[in-house]
Amino acid sequence: MPWCEGCERFLTPSTVQTDGTCPRCGREISGPATSDSTALDPTTSKGTTADDEALDPVPWHFKLLLGAVALYLGYRAFQGIEWLIG
């Protein structure tokens, strides 16, 4: 995430100038997005963007949590339908 020392704030890559400077104060931006100036310009086809990065695999305990929530909500829906009928 680009960080401006002068403004003391994080910047989005789209707000950073193409030469790697802050649009507010004009200082050089520190952060991983300044390693390649084409990465800062979303209009160019060159460079890397956040969409190109590989995603980490989903942890098993998150899948387990989703399964448990689905079972619980299914059971509660069954109870609600049973209550409406009865």
Descriptive account of the structure:
With about 90 residues, the chain is mainly alpha-helical. It folds into two domains: about 1-50, no CATH class; about 55-85, no CATH class. The chain is about 35% helix and about 5% strand. Residues about 35-40 have low confidence and may be disordered.
Radius of gyration from the CA trace?
23 Å
Q: What's the overall geometry? A: elongated
Largest sheet: 2 strands, antiparallel
Low-confidence stretches: 33-40
Work out the strand percent. Answer: under 5%
**Strand order across the largest sheet:** 1-2
Q: What is the helix tally?
A: 2
User: How are helices and strands ordered from N to C?
Assistant: EEHH
Q: Give helix % range.
A: 25-40%
Our measurement of the CA-to-CA distance between the termini, rounded to an integer number of angstroms, reads 57 Å
Give the overall average pLDDT.
79
Q: Quickly count the domains.
A: 2
The overall strand count is: 2
Counting helices, strands and paired strands, the structural category is: mainly alpha
